[in-house]
Specification:
mainly beta; Jelly Rolls; 3 helices; 13 strands; binds fe (ii) ion
Length: 225
């Protein structure tokens, strides 16, 4: 991805979140210079993958395949120095922009429509060898258990949420014509390096073409103090 696109995507996400009444914590707005000056007091941010995370999942059209993520809080399954057992993200999804089919082995997550559009999520059980199962899916939406056929599209309006349990395959997008979507994610501890299992091979952290200076650092880019 080009740095100029990443700069713009982050700035558009900041305005969209503010428009929707969702305020970000201070480190969302730190400049690269502030990151260079930050000392060990900011270790929780660096070591637990907090901050901006823009992905095109290895594709070349971010508006078709991609996701804008800001991780507000997270623990660390590999380091007991960080005992927080929960995580929270906020996500921006463009109309029709797809997050590809994947499951998590460890993370359990609630994906919450925080407004702006309509969330469509397709769900399948996974087989032990990582294929899509044809068995019915039991999935909770806001405390109500639904038993639905394999591959069902759940359609969730503002305020609605879905609980994604480990090993449940899920793919989601914002319904075209219904608006750009703000999502919340409340989950157990999250490790995006080891706990995303995609149905089709795809990337997670993009290579960056530095066509202009970074105005915001991604969570993979913080300098060590
Ligand atoms: Fe997920």
């Amino acid at each position: 991805m080009r740095r100029s696109d990443i700069n713009r995507i982050i700035e558009e996400a900041m305005s969209f979140m503010r428009e929707r009444g969702f305020e970000l914590p201070p480190f969302a707005h730190w400049t690269p210079e502030q990151w260079r000056r930050a000392g060990a007091e900011a270790d929780e941010i660096r070591e637990n993958q907090l901050g901006w995370d823009i992905t095109n999942f290895g594709g070349d059209d971010f508006l078709k395949l991609g996701l804008t993520i800001f991780t507000l809080r997270n623990g660390n399954a590999k380091n007991p120095a960080w005992p927080k057992p929960y995580a929270e993200k906020v996500l921006v999804v463009e109309e029709g922009q797809v997050t590809p089919m994947h499951y998590h082995k460890s993370k359990m997550e609630d994906i919450i429509n925080r407004g702006g559009g309509v969330l469509v999520m397709q769900v399948y059980n996974s087989t032990p060898d990582g294929a899509l199962a044809d068995t019915p899916v039991s999935v909770g939406t806001d405390g109500v258990l639904r038993n639905v056929p394999a591959g069902t599209l759940l359609r969730l309006g503002p305020g609605e949420s879905v609980t994604v349990t480990p090993l449940l395959y899920h793919k989601f997008w914002a319904e075209p014509g219904a608006g750009k979507l703000l999502l919340g994610e409340v989950s157990s501890v999250n490790d995006d390096y080891t706990d995303n299992f995609f149905h089709e091979p795809c990337g997670r952290f993009p290579e960056i073409d530095e066509d202009e200076p970074a105005r915001h650092l991604l969570l993979t880019e913080y300098p060590k103090p």
